[in-house]
Amino acid sequence: MALLETVVVAFWAMLPAYVPNNAAVLAGGGRPIDGGRTWGGSRILGDGKTWRGTAAGIAAGLLVATVLTLFAVDVRGLTGFDLPTFTPLAAVGLAAGAMLGDILASFLKRRTGRQRGAMFPGVDQLDFVVVSLPLTALLAPSWFFAVFTWEVVLVVVVLTPILHVTTNVVAYGLGLKNEPW
Ligand code: CTP
Ligand code: MG
Prior knowledge:
Bound molecules: cytidine-5'-triphosphate, magnesium ion
Helix content: 55-70%
Radius of gyration: 17 Å
Largest sheet: 2 strands, antiparallel
Structural class: mainly alpha
Number of helices: 6
Strand order of the largest sheet: 1-2
Shape: elongated
């Protein structure tokens, strides 16, 4: 696969995992998942992880997977790239895994004394990859290993932090997010 095609396939395959975080920022608010509970003097997750944000994030990821699946044949024809469709389990793994990774990162932040919104370099940028890829491999193994070749995984690991930093700086600039990370 040529580099451009690998990059486009990686972005396409990861889009159902990329969108949930942004949708959660837009829809977030209301009751925190941890219900305000603490553990060891710190919040379990914090006010930044809400039921509404999480549900909206997963729903947005599933919607994106559905739309990409509907357009896959057309976009394949236009680009000549071998773009995948998404099975329901693959979509769930990517979307729910992204939200779960983000929640797990907040759990780790609170355990390491970081307040809500604090930066955690590396974790902030790759938390959703670290959970969404293994979860998808578990839920939809044959889909996962057909789509996520080692080249695609490599591109995802390089591309994701760049996209994450860019979208967060833009969201911060637009006043949608409180911090640029
Ligand atoms: N958000 C949400 N539910 C989620 C994830 C995010 O409601 N599961 C919303 C919250 O309003 C949150 C915002 O999106 O404040 C930004 O997300 P994020 O940067 O992940 O949260 P932080 O507020 O920075 O909190 P943390 O330090 O725990 O990451
Ligand atoms: Mg944050």
